[in-house]
């Protein structure tokens, strides 16, 4: 019953939002830069527009996916290193905080000269996703109960054995929470990375359409980025719900 009610409320909220977007465009309350949603959808009927948007979407999704995977793996490796080598944990936490504090947009010129224009979106996506996964992994690896830890100590388990058999399974729900938050961040990072001269991508399309006053195309690109972010979040959130039953 609760699931049905949640689904109904979600659908109602989504329809209300779409109706508000359409009404704002029809009434012109937000100016010419906010077209009706139906007009944006109609623009996708043009094969040229659809093909252009499809190539840009594929490029951004690829960069975001690559960066998400790389950032998540790197963050998990750093968190695990802090568990296996406690003397390094405080330093790794501070390093992660410092890296996260640097504005991603400020790294663009540096990344262009090191990884190139095509690789910049993936690297920025990795940096955007990595911190959320690191925080979730660090919290998750410390989520095991003290009673269970005492049992492992009493049995003489090594840090590695405790990590594999106790801490990692206990960390799964929180880790999936971090992955769900990191996925939209990776998409945003990839879009920002596109701005630094990438040959194609939603970020390139956003800037180009904005400069050329192609309002429908600009909104199509923006809504596409929002759509893949929501889909990635929903998929990982669903996986988290399923995993909670197994590992909670």
TrEMBL record:
Gene Ontology cellular component terms for the protein in this record: plasma membrane
Keywords, comma-separated and alphabetical: Cell membrane, Membrane, Transmembrane, Transmembrane helix, Transport
Transmembrane region(s): 67-88, 95-116, 122-145, 166-197, 217-239
Phosphoprotein keyword on record: no
Matching Pfam families: BPD_transp_1
Domain of life, per lineage: Bacteria
Single GO BP term: transmembrane transport
InterPro entries per record: MetI-like, MetI-like_sf
Keyword field contains Ion transport: no
Localization per record: Cell membrane
UniProt membrane topology term: Multi-pass membrane protein
All residue ranges annotated as the ABC transmembrane type-1 domain in the record: 53-240
Location, primary (coarse class): membrane
Similarity comment: Belongs to the binding-protein-dependent transport system permease family.
The protein, known as: Putative aliphatic sulfonates transport permease protein SsuC
């Amino acid at each position: 019953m609760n699931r049905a009610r949640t689904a109904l409320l979600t659908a109602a909220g989504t329809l209300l939002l779409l109706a508000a977007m359409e009404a704002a465009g029809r009434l012109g309350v937000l100016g010419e830069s906010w077209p009706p949603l139906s007009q944006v959808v109609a623009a996708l009927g043009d094969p040229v527009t659809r093909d252009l948007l499809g190539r840009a979407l594929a490029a951004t999704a690829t960069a975001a996916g690559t960066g998400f995977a790389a950032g998540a793996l790197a963050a998990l490796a750093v968190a695990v290193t802090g568990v296996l080598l406690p003397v390094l944990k405080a330093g790794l936490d501070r390093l992660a905080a410092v890296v996260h504090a640097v504005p991603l947009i400020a790294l663009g010129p540096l990344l262009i000269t090191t990884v190139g224009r095509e690789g910049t979106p993936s690297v920025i996506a990795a940096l955007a996703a990595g911190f959320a996964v690191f925080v979730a992994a660090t919290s998750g690896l410390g989520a095991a109960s003290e009673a269970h830890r005492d049992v492992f100590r009493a049995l003489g388990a090594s840090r590695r054995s405790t990590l594999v058999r106790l801490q990692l399974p206990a960390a799964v729900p929180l880790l999936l929470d971090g992955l769900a938050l990191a996925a939209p961040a990776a998409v945003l990072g990839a879009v920002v990375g596109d701005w630094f001269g990438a040959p194609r991508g939603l970020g390139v399309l956003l800037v180009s359409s904005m400069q050329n006053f192609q309002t429908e195309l600009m909104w199509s690109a923006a809504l596409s980025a929002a759509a893949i972010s929501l889909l990635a979040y929903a998929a990982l959130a669903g996986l988290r719900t399923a995993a909670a039953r197994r590992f909670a």
